[in-house]
Automatic annotation (TrEMBL):
Listed Gene3D superfamilies: Ribonuclease H-like superfamily/Ribonuclease H (3.30.420.10)
Pfam families recorded: CAF1
InterPro entries: CAF1_poly(A)_ribonucleases, RNase_CAF1, RNaseH-like_sf, RNaseH_sf
Name of the protein: Exonuclease domain-containing protein
SUPFAM superfamilies: Ribonuclease H-like (SSF53098)
Domain of life (superkingdom): Eukaryota
Entry similarity comment: Belongs to the CAF1 family.
Skewed-composition ranges (Basic and acidic residues): 229-243
Biased composition (Acidic residues): 441-451
Stretches with biased composition (Low complexity): 430-440
Amino acid sequence: MLTLYIYIYIYRHSINKWLQSENTSKPLIIQTNNSFIRRLVHQELQDGKYNGYLTGRLRDTKHMSIHKLSEEERSANMRVDNVQTELNFRRVIELINQTKCPVIVHNGYLDILHTIDQFWQYLPSSVIEFKNIANEMWSRTVDTKYLAEFHPHLKKCFNSTVLGSLYNTVSTELLEAEVSLKIADGYDRYSQDEDAQHEAGYDAFMTGSIFIGFARFILESEAKKLEREKSTKIKSGKEKNMDESDSDNESIATTLSEDGQVAKDTPDPSPFGAEILTSYYNRIFVARCDIPYIDLVNEEQMPVIEVPNRFYMTNVPEGITVSGIETLYPELRPMSVHWINTSTAWLIVKHDNRIELAKEGILGEERVKPFLRGQTRQYEGEALHITPDAAKIELFGFERWRTKPEFQTNGLQNADVKEAQGNKSVNEDNNGSGEISSSTESDDSDNDNDEQPEKLNNDNTTPSSPRRVDQESIMAAIGESYIPVGGNAYDDLGIPLPPSFRRGLKRKATNDEEKED
């Protein structure tokens, strides 16, 4: 460390002496034996006391030359530094937002999540916060997957909404309509190489092309539809106050003129601002979900669906396995169980002819009794962790679950909080502390305790993710403040540690405790 200070002192003294001389037109030559010393010199030259007038250049492997810049050279150098400092992807995001240009994605739910997490801020714990952040980042986002699946003019047009398939269909339609899309210079390979799919640039080109084709088709279809409606009203003699009642529709219909170009008299020069399009903006497709999209601006409209093979199961005792549930409901096999939390789950009957065999209500003692101590199937019951509490398991059909308010989101959250409070009280009785220990955290810890049996799904996996309870909500419910855990480098910058790092922290804490023991 002393040697380092000596180096810095020598370089500073040499630079100050050179600047005070009258010979600064000639560069100052200093000895730099390695890359570490060269870096020290560069850092010194960037100090504010030199006001950007000094720059260092490599002379050979052992020496550097320091030059004093003229006013013109300094100004040019400062402009380059500013561009390099500001030009990052976050700056690109901000510029896109300033232009109010629609951001086009295809099945882009995960893309938006990763963009926020990597370039904007850490992902929040609630959907509402996520929507606010996404709108702050980009105010107009369009998902071509959602348009293809749900827009009334498009949803019956395609057998497949996969990106490549949509692009092939739309590009053919555009070609027949003599609409050409020019690729930027230097990217001609994209117009010739079909193997370029799944490259980021080419996928972006396909997505943009699809949206242009969609917008053109939707606007033309809407114009034709409104023209037919207008003709029908005229023929039936029911045309009254057309200028007032149809003013909004006519604005859309006149967006395109007869030759397919943007009409000159439209208030919005961009066809992408038509209401028939913008009303479907900010809706992102979500696969394998009861609500098949997420609306970044408004609340999603829950579609009324009928799922007769899905049953809501409550009062499931701690420790019982999926095989145990299958044994208690043999008439419903084969089935799958999807955990909501430690005491509730969805039971899915896989064969339609067995749905009618499902009896809603409490399981009852008669079904559980053979598996209890002293009964004929005692050992089987012990292996499957079937206890007397299993008699309280209650089954509800999907329609009954959907119409009961206590089974909706708030009810489930309250159940999770009660469960957390119960776990806290158990721990306080056992070890006198207020530490929360819940089986919902089993996937984040290296707990090898064999005394606590794990519930297994039908694929022999632990139901960890669906049963996770948000730590902050639990802390708030039991009256304790929640303090985000930070790490070394993040503490220095005042940034909370990302949730994905918590597993490593827990392992490190466990290892440290073992070392102390």
